Amino acid sequence: MKSTLSSAALLAALPLALAQDNYGPPPPGPHSGEPWSGSAWGPEQRSTSWSGSWGPEHRPTSWAGHGWPSASMAPSAAMSSEAMISPSGAMSPSAAMSPSAAMSSAAMMSPSGAMSPSASMAPMSPSASMAPMSPSASMAPMSPSASMSPSAPLSPSAPIYSSAPVSPSAPISPSAPVSPTAPAPPSATPYSSAPVSPSAPVSPIASGSATISSAYATGTSGSGNAQSCTPLTTAEIEAMGNNTLFTRWRSHSHFIAPAGWMNDPCGSMYDPTRDVYHLFYQWHPQHINWGNISWGHATSKDMITWEDQGGWQDAEARAMGPSGDGRKAPTDPLTSSNYNGLGIFSGTAQPVNLHGEQDGTLLLFYTSVSYLPTSWTSFYAPYTETQSFAYSTDGGATFEQYAGNPVINATTGTPPMDWNVTGFRDPFFQPWPALDAVLGCSEPHYYAVFGSGIKGVGPRMPLWTAPASDLTSWSFLGALWEPADNTTLGPILSTGTYGFNFEVSGFFSLPDKSGELHYFVNKGTEGGNVSFHESAHWALWNEGNVSRRDNGSVQFTPIAGGAGDWGLSYALTSFNDTKNNRRVQWAWAPEDLVGDGGLFSATQQGFQGSLTLPRELFVHEVDGVMNANNAVSDSRESVLTPDAHGTFTARTLGVRPLPDVIAGITASASHQTYASGKYTASKMLQQQGSSHMELKASITSATGAAGVILAASPDMTEYTTIMYEPANNTILVERLHSSTIDGFANVTVTGYFAPYILAGSAPEAISMDIFLDGSILEVYVNERFALTTRIYPSMECSTGYGVYVAPGAMAEMSAEAWVGTGNVWPSRPADSSSPLLWDSAAETDNYKWWSGN
């Protein structure tokens, strides 16, 4: 059944949802092996039938954060549709996935991990016939060691991780209450001078728009490709074979694996000895689901066009994968070659050797995995995750494992493994002279942070250090700061929630326009509140003050924060682009598939996931900002510094797509400008655009919701609306009409954005920069807001674009379009698909480690 949740319904529900929220620790999940079956899962009734049993990780799912099937599925405990895979590679294939058909692309595992290779789940054979049932693919028994330890005591040495006492059951900080609604701008401003009807739909053919002929059947895109207006149907897609829709919604202006499953960006770096950028990624080649995770590899001279290293076919681009037989019980990693036998999880890279010298060596620091499944909700087996090096001396053509791996072994007698941890993974390491100065180091050091947490206490970001002269000798410096479980710095609407576990953490400094350094962290958070954000995974950042504790460790005290991406992107990581003296961020953009257990169209596409556009992080400053009613300071997104005029300079983390990369991908696009004008109704600007384009809009004043329409069909049966809603300071991507196909998620995606009110009570103009590339849709606003989502129109001709104004409102705005962005993979064919494989029960420990497809 199609969702009928409009943006108005979502907005109206926000205060109630927040008022009913509970920030306590999660209730226990169902018992392992407990059967479930039924129909009409959740309020949207997206699933027609489901059955199975809960896996050992006790991981239920939410339906996109809207509605719960029972009180036991509380938002604070449930994993969202995107939250079923730990994008750092720490996927529990036995996670108790919701049987709901409303699961997203990231939720593709069966509830027990024992996936039956049915036609809806397994890769189809070349003849599109039903894949044969694997006799050993029956429900896997629960691993005794993977069950939840309900009363596991915290280690008595806990204070090593927490310089200040933290109550395991500490509620959300009283000083950081959740604001039910974001403060609206003063009524005197142009953004709110007239009542807004948030429930008003897009007018299909607004007054003053071009007439659309109902007889229109085909056209051409900005790139000259024919566009069919014959819609694909759910039944047609389900009957198709492997890879038959490989090019239909695939991006070509983004970084994406040749084929197969991909998730986290890894090891991004610039090699100054060869003038080459390297980027690695979590990859499961020739499969459409997570498993046997490896690192793929590509290089570039400019971060615009990319080249697969080793080739694009099958698994040729794999830089390194798990070693050992991968089927042993966990053993002491100091004596076993199996330390990375079950996965090469996420990590980072530097163009140095083990002595910190730039001699052409490329050094990869990653999490080696010897035990699966793993999850923050389940028992954490010793030796599950260790930290290891791989290196190349031939420019990345080949990599060798360091003979002394793992370099951080985390045995039960060393921190943080003498803790009851939720995880310990994703090393983010770099040299850092500024931190050397804070700690008073006599020689240069490298620093590494990891994603972690303490069960029943809170998420953690442990910090380690090693002298640059010996990067195999690491020392533990404690946790940067000690948030309690599921707390937040400010209102959840603006700063998000820390959840129960951190992943893919980062720690870095950026200069402001005067040259003063400011310290930032980023992290993925797991298990957090979902009443506003559609996923229990958040991608967050914080700015903080940094100081040296009495015991010699580093104290990070957050002073501001927000979401690095308000949509489905996760696993945000960054690197210092020394060639251009800037910090560049990459993020994983999963698919947003729903039907057939969250695998709808996955085998037909033959791939899942891509990365976002590369983004520049910088200190964003705006002068002359008013703080009426403490609206800016209460949001905690910005730090305010008073000036001599009674106003403030507002400082926050800035984010924008790399300008040189955007110039490169739009160089051959068809460019159109639309002069500023006053609109009293929505209006189509072009009926024929492209599914690969950039669209900018500048809204200088508006009395209600306003923005743009894109991916619109000529008859307006399909379209996507992106708008700023001044009634509650939100950016919305309304996908209710994005596709007529039932198998794709169509919930409205929402992010918080409050324009600054400047001296004279005039609000900032709203500057939107939007990129559509196949199914991936990225929205940037005023260089301090990012949101990523997916759309899958059923018709190739759904490429029109225009301006949106809510009925009864007026907006003054201009627009600019680049239609037909370029291909950044010139050496790949458009169809770089590879044959899909199914792993055997023996290769997956009877599908306990991963699903096999």
From TrEMBL:
<dbReference type="Pfam" id="PF08244">
    <property type="entry name" value="Glyco_hydro_32C"/>
</dbReference>
<dbReference type="GO" id="GO:0005987">
    <property type="term" value="P:sucrose catabolic process"/>
</dbReference>
<feature type="signal peptide">
    <location>
        <begin position="1"/>
        <end position="19"/>
    </location>
</feature>
<keyword id="KW-0378">Hydrolase</keyword>
<dbReference type="InterPro" id="IPR023296">
    <property type="entry name" value="Glyco_hydro_beta-prop_sf"/>
</dbReference>
<dbReference type="GO" id="GO:0005737">
    <property type="term" value="C:cytoplasm"/>
</dbReference>
<feature type="domain" description="Glycosyl hydrolase family 32 C-terminal">
    <location>
        <begin position="682"/>
        <end position="811"/>
    </location>
</feature>
<dbReference type="Pfam" id="PF00251">
    <property type="entry name" value="Glyco_hydro_32N"/>
</dbReference>
<dbReference type="InterPro" id="IPR013189">
    <property type="entry name" value="Glyco_hydro_32_C"/>
</dbReference>
<dbReference type="InterPro" id="IPR001362">
    <property type="entry name" value="Glyco_hydro_32"/>
</dbReference>
<protein>
    <recommendedName>
        <fullName>Glycosyl hydrolase family 32 N-terminal domain-containing protein</fullName>
    </recommendedName>
</protein>
<feature type="region of interest" description="Disordered">
    <location>
        <begin position="108"/>
        <end position="204"/>
    </location>
</feature>
<feature type="compositionally biased region" description="Low complexity">
    <location>
        <begin position="189"/>
        <end position="204"/>
    </location>
</feature>
<feature type="compositionally biased region" description="Low complexity">
    <location>
        <begin position="108"/>
        <end position="179"/>
    </location>
</feature>
<dbReference type="InterPro" id="IPR013320">
    <property type="entry name" value="ConA-like_dom_sf"/>
</dbReference>
<keyword id="KW-0326">Glycosidase</keyword>
<feature type="domain" description="Glycosyl hydrolase family 32 N-terminal">
    <location>
        <begin position="336"/>
        <end position="621"/>
    </location>
</feature>
<dbReference type="InterPro" id="IPR013148">
    <property type="entry name" value="Glyco_hydro_32_N"/>
</dbReference>
<feature type="region of interest" description="Disordered">
    <location>
        <begin position="19"/>
        <end position="74"/>
    </location>
</feature>
<comment type="similarity">
    <text>Belongs to the glycosyl hydrolase 32 family.</text>
</comment>
<feature type="domain" description="Glycosyl hydrolase family 32 N-terminal">
    <location>
        <begin position="254"/>
        <end position="310"/>
    </location>
</feature>
<keyword id="KW-0732">Signal</keyword>
<dbReference type="GO" id="GO:0004575">
    <property type="term" value="F:sucrose alpha-glucosidase activity"/>
</dbReference>
